[in-house]
């Protein structure tokens, strides 16, 4: 259903101008292709961390953990403007950047949970910061409004009452982030296909 909405939505952007006007813009197409690859790489790294959580912590199936999820305060970044019928490039790009900012901070929980994989988490955080920067630069180039996020950590990390809650919280951070990335990827891919 979500994919159907993505594929059939009347995609409009840039202060009401049809996005089709940008479809022939080589710089915009290059931006989309480059960042589709970037998003694909980030998705693969998140999937690798999910496999580590499954293999080392035996946390593999989301449906088995739903009861514990209710006790956890795990941020879930919305991307509703990236798949609604009222799609706007400006708000979609802004939501992608805001989500990357949220998950960038949340990944510190994963680094604490999997200290042996801190290098992969830090590499992932660097890629996320670069993707956010690329989107901000493209928005500025298109004359769209942008928000600059501070580099210092402002959002408090989730606190967990037990080691098990920490582990399950890490599982859900990665699961939410993977869903977020899939939606962002589909939105960028659709823009590239126009």
From TrEMBL:
<keyword id="KW-0964">Secreted</keyword>
<dbReference type="GO" id="GO:0045639">
    <property type="term" value="P:positive regulation of myeloid cell differentiation"/>
</dbReference>
<dbReference type="InterPro" id="IPR040117">
    <property type="entry name" value="GCSF/MGF"/>
</dbReference>
<dbReference type="Pfam" id="PF16647">
    <property type="entry name" value="GCSF"/>
</dbReference>
<dbReference type="GO" id="GO:0005125">
    <property type="term" value="F:cytokine activity"/>
</dbReference>
<keyword id="KW-0325">Glycoprotein</keyword>
<dbReference type="GO" id="GO:0005576">
    <property type="term" value="C:extracellular region"/>
</dbReference>
<comment type="similarity">
    <text>Belongs to the IL-6 superfamily.</text>
</comment>
<keyword id="KW-1015">Disulfide bond</keyword>
<keyword id="KW-0339">Growth factor</keyword>
<keyword id="KW-0732">Signal</keyword>
<protein>
    <submittedName>
        <fullName>MGF factor</fullName>
    </submittedName>
</protein>
<dbReference type="InterPro" id="IPR030474">
    <property type="entry name" value="IL-6/GCSF/MGF"/>
</dbReference>
<dbReference type="InterPro" id="IPR030473">
    <property type="entry name" value="IL6/GCSF/MGF_CS"/>
</dbReference>
<feature type="signal peptide">
    <location>
        <begin position="1"/>
        <end position="16"/>
    </location>
</feature>
<dbReference type="GO" id="GO:0008083">
    <property type="term" value="F:growth factor activity"/>
</dbReference>
<dbReference type="GO" id="GO:0006955">
    <property type="term" value="P:immune response"/>
</dbReference>
<dbReference type="GO" id="GO:0005130">
    <property type="term" value="F:granulocyte colony-stimulating factor receptor binding"/>
</dbReference>
<dbReference type="InterPro" id="IPR009079">
    <property type="entry name" value="4_helix_cytokine-like_core"/>
</dbReference>
């Amino acid at each position: 259903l979500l994919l159907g909405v993505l594929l059939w939505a009347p995609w409009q952007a840039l202060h009401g101008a049809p996005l089709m006007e940008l479809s022939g813009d080589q710089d915009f197409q290059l931006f989309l292709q480059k960042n589709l690859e970037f998003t694909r790489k980030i998705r693969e790294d998140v999937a690798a961390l999910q496999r580590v959580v499954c293999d080392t912590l035996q946390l593999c199936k989301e449906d088995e953990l739903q009861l514990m999820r209710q006790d956890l305060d795990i941020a879930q970044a919305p991307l509703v403007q990236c798949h609604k019928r009222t799609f706007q490039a400006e708000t979609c790009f802004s939501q992608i950047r805001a989500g990357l900012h949220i998950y960038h901070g949340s990944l510190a929980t994963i680094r604490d949970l999997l200290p042996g994989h801190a290098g992969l988490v830090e590499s992932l955080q660097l890629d996320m910061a670069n993707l956010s920067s690329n989107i901000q630069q493209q928005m500025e180039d298109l004359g769209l409004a942008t928000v600059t996020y501070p580099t210092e950590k402002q959002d408090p990390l989730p606190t967990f009452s037990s080691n098990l809650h920490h582990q399950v919280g890490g599982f859900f951070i990665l699961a939410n982030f993977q869903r977020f990335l899939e939606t962002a990827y589909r939105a960028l891919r659709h823009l590239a296909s126009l």
